[in-house]
């Protein structure tokens, strides 16, 4: 077994996960705590420290040379801070400095969760072997990241590739980001469900009104549920095609909870993409499901912290 280990942290609004990851992308040790998202910033940091302390109890800890953090955003990798929308106690929280202190001065790399997923998919998943790729997380929000010329391209603050806030409907609904008609406002899980409900779809006896329930209804032939996914797919296709036209990607990898809808999402997405990706240099663009699943955040944090030829470069080190 390799001793070239990385400490990986995946920080979200629901859970804080940690792992020791080896050079082959295998998770050797895991730890996890619920995120006390409604508590003050120091309480949230205590949960991060508890995860790190559990990992430090492993005899493998001494072999870990660096730390990678994939966090819900916004993140500012240039400053080493995070301000997750769903963790109000953290605003410009100095996570790089605090984690570096908690891990004995190890170098720390910070990326957003969309960029982490991209690093994971390029290293171990569906974007492996592709030099130019866009990877998307379609869930409660819509995030993403870019691989350009074979390397992760996080941008100065770690947010490059954030496809969720490309406007695809100039007269569309206001988005939480302050824009209008953003991909996220149309294609995220809650907005798929909202649009279906507004158009007359009704949940079953269990009352489940999630995007997953809308997907199940669409699969069973409900035309209103299917139409909501069609609209989401159209928005995603427009954003993907715009990105491809700008930077010449050849593959788009889609993960996140909404991607679990399978062909309910992917069939109309591929169909819509043919209508938007019409230029000669983007016509060959393919769209595929992500492969790294729930470990994407941990694997991506590890990949960003330990650059290798098939992984990524790191935007900031503490």
Explain the overall architecture.
This protein has 318 residues and is an alpha/beta fold. The protein folds into two domains: 5-113 and 295-305, Nucleotidyltransferase, domain 5 (2-Layer Sandwich); 126-290, ATPase, nucleotide binding domain (Nucleotidyltransferase, domain 5), CATH 3.30.420. 34% of the residues lie in helices and 20% in strands. The protein has helices at 41-56, 95-102, 113-124, 183-187, 189-198, 211-219, 223-247, 263-276, 296-305, and strands at 5-11, 15-21, 27-34, 64-71, 75-76, 81-82, 108-112, 133-138, 142-148, 151-152, 251-255, 286-289. A hairpin with a 4-residue loop joins strand 5 and strand 6 (81-82). Helix 1 runs parallel beside helix 2 and helix 7 packs across helix 8 (263-276). It is globular and about 55 Å long.
Overall pLDDT confidence: 92
Provide the CATH superfamily of the largest domain.
ATPase, nucleotide binding domain
Task: Report on the biggest sheet.
Answer: 5 strands, mixed
Class computed from helices, strands and strand pairing: alpha/beta
Our count of domains comes out at 2
Count, helices: 9
CA-atom Rg in angstroms: 19 Å
Helix residue percentage: 25-40%
Please identify the oligomeric state: single chain
What is the percentage of strand-forming residues? 15-25%
